[in-house]
Write the structure tokens for this entry.
Amino acid sequence: MKKTDDMTNCEQYREKIGGDPHYEGDGAHLAGCATCQDYRAAMQALDGEILRALSVPVPKLAVPDLPEIATADVVQLPRRRLTAPAWLAIAASITVAVTVGFLLTANNPPPPTLAEQIIDHFEHEKFSMQVSDQAVSDDRLARIVPANIVTMDQPVGLITYAQSCVINGKQVPHLVVQGDHGPVTILLLANEHIDAPQELQSGAFSGAIFPLGDGSVAIVGTDVEDLERVEQQVTSSVHWRT
Amino acid sequence: MKRSSTGRGRRRKFDEIVGVFHQDMYRYALWLSRNKAIAEDVVQEALLRAWKSLDALRDTAAAKPWLLTIVRRENARFFERRRLETVDIDNLAPSQEAMLAEVPDEQLEDLREAISELEDDYREPLVLQVLMGYSTNEIAALMELKQGAVLTRLHRARLKLKDCVERREARR
């Protein structure tokens, strides 16, 4: 090991190698320090063993039943025959147009609406609708509700669930607060502008998407919950930062 | 007239990326949960979510981090669900004997056990770096940490494994 002044360098170097055994920097130190060379070699050898250990056998792939997804069908045109008379080309064009029109109207249902996506997501995470007195930590809340996108400057109730979820291709904070009659789901949709409230219904749960500035907020709770009060709390607390 | 469907194209794209990255998905899920049955459930859920949101994947070159992020979320959801259902998570993991059952190499078994015993905060970045080939920047982004914190965790994880391996070798 290199002595005195270089002791710190050895420690620093080993920290870097411990973080990444293939670290290529600090070549001058490495060239002059046999102990660090040994340490690097040992860490690289250990990494090889770790890789072998992590590479556990994998069972055969079993793909679950995949639901039908609405997609736009396209029609592959037949190769053009150079000898075909003009009327045949016109007839083919008409057939293509009719077929495309038929496929677009008959086989291509519209993409799910925002409300449908929210209900789908709500049902996927229905397990979060639990009565609880355990608040999520401030750290977690800060991660899930990023201050550069949305701030909440007043309490909206006891938040017992916080998850970052994807709705309509965008990352949104998904919270559950404890209402007067049970848990209430709140989705903060910073970039989903709507013109008017839209109703949401999922079994015994109901709610709405409310417009809020340039975005909107979805609130879903039990039928007996006073969702208007929750909405007022949320709309007076939430401020978009985007 | 021959008709091709984007529905079939979609399924083909799905099968291709899942065929390539299925092993990574399973191994990541396994090392996160430390339980074969949970890992299989998490992968099944992740495959469903990936199928539903496949259109969000614009660049198939980004398929691996995209799939692993889905696995990570589904794993978190699984344990969140279990927590809310008040099931004792400690009873679910680790089922090391199941993970190690197919491995005859004793040294490798010891190392797997040591990795399995690492705290989650140390094990996950190690798996991402060594097995998945993530850079420390990519790990930091995925785990919402600073790069320095990732390096520290990786260093400590390796020191723990090194120490563990050395102690077990000394006992022999």
